[in-house]
Amino acid sequence: MTAARISAPASAPQPGLRERKKLKTRIAIRDATYRLIREQGYEATTVEQIAEAAEVSPSTVFRYFPTKEDIVLTDEFDPFLERQLRERPADEPVVESLRVVLRRALSFDFAEEPEVTRLRTQLMIEVPAVRSRMLESMSVTGGILCRSIAERTGRDPGDLEVRAFSMGLIGALTETTAYWAERGHKDDLPTLVDRTLDMLTSGFAGPSEA
Fold first, then answer.
1. Residue-wise pLDDT tens digits, 12-63
2. Which single residue of 12, 18, 133, 139 could bond 8 by disulfide (Cβ 3.0 to 4.6 Å)?
């Protein structure tokens, strides 16, 4: 699952000057990338063009984003997820905690950058390199979920059950996002996410049970 830029809560410590400059550069590179992709397509957009549009050097682009695919996919969702899950009640079911956190993420997402979210998810299903890189990055998000579940249950993050449950959740949510994009973003994404989490909680109903 992917989300656009997510703002930190007002109560969170504010970053220093160096961190603010880094964030400004990262945002400039991403904004330039999205603009160029809208104008000429993903394949036609080069790192050199992105650097020129963002008014940085190509080496600076690569310092912030190892690949062009990373520019499209990298966001603040992972630290947001980890922080928000730790703030949920310890006795709350993991799926319900995730439901609350995802609702918050999606509300930020659509309030700030709905067009960017649609573009990113469209690239996920249309560009093999982007989808491949996204699947690689799922392990990072899965690791965060593993740690959160382990903290709640007292189990080791490396336990098979913890890993299987975490990656199952991440995979299901990724496919939910792909389903949304494949249908032209016509459905309500939060509703689709709820459907997925309900299915994971209650189990899959076959045709005779639906």
1. 456 677 788 888 999 999 999 999 999 999 999 999 999 999 999 999 999 9
2. 12
The distance of Cα 189 from the centroid of its chain, to the nearest Å, equals 13
State the DSSP code for 204.
Answer: -
Residues with Cβ within 8 Å of 191's Cβ and at least 6 positions away in sequence, in order, are none
Using a 10 angstrom Cβ sphere, with 0-12 exposed, 13-18 middle and 19 or more buried, the burial of residue 203 is exposed
Name the residue type at position 74.
T
Average per-residue pLDDT for the chain: 86
pLDDT tens-place string over residues 133-184:
998 888 888 999 999 889 888 899 999 999 999 999 999 999 999 999 999 9
Helix (H, G, I), strand (E, B) or coil at 157: coil
Distance CA 51, CA 62 (A): 10
Distance CA 24, CA 145 (A): 28
- HSE-CB of 127 using CA atoms within 13 angstroms: 21
State the Cα–Cα distance between residues 126 and 42, nearest whole angstrom: 10
User: What residues have CB less than 8 Å from 148, skipping those under 6 apart?
Assistant: 82, 85, 86, 94
DSSP H/E element including 111: helix 94-112
Number of other residues whose CB lies within 10 A of the CB of residue 31: 15
